[in-house]
Amino acid sequence: MIATPDRTPLAREFFDRPVLDVAPDLLGRVLVRTTPDGPIALRITEVEAYDGENDPGSHAFRGRTARNGVMFGPPGHVYVYFTYGMWHCMNLVCGPEGLASAVLLRAGEVIEGAELARKRRISARNDKELAKGPARLATALDVDRALDGTDACSPADPPLTVLTGTSVHSDQVRNGPRTGVAGDGGVHPWRFWIADDPTVSPYRAHVPRRRRT
DNA sequence: CAGTCGATTCACT
DNA sequence: GTGAATCGACTGA
What we know:
Number of domains: 1
Order of helices and strands: HHEEEEEHHEEE
CATH architecture: Roll
Radius of gyration: 16 Å
Strand content: 25-35%
Number of helices: 4
Structural class: alpha+beta
Number of strands: 8
Low-confidence stretches: none
């Protein structure tokens, strides 16, 4: 277990920038999930940017709904959605309030509280897989819709916090098309990851589901 | 109000 | 590599 000495939350201004600036800048930073059983800390290794109402791949593309409302709110808050009838995924809202941009946290390295994460991720064959993929990440951190709207920059010990600290050097950042996203045809290279990191999830192009008979 | 499908994962071949 | 699991949000009639 690696210690995470400084638990100061990142300033909200960090998130109040264009999402394409924030996304790569999150790589290498640490997210802490405080649970009743103890903290779980995750070093972020893979993210994707979703750029507001003009991005066909974004949940905000067709405007504000009951589900995506948090995306339109202030930066630094957490947007959690439920998908495929069984999974949750989590985002950090970016840009000025009203712009509806966000960064999807796709993968990370559990650096503290791995014993807690393993309890939620029974099928993980090793610790690299604990948070290798967005739904796995949310599962490992016990994140669901109850945490939608959480302020990750709050000084008041919120259940989710992004810490100050340093991101990886830009020469370690790679980028490419977003994984499994319908609508954008894979044209936006808005997925960012840390080069050669073993916790980064594999790329998959979007495949329309075969129709049920 | 019924039909469609998803920012996915897992078991199985 | 393929298909199932599983349900709520969204769409269009």
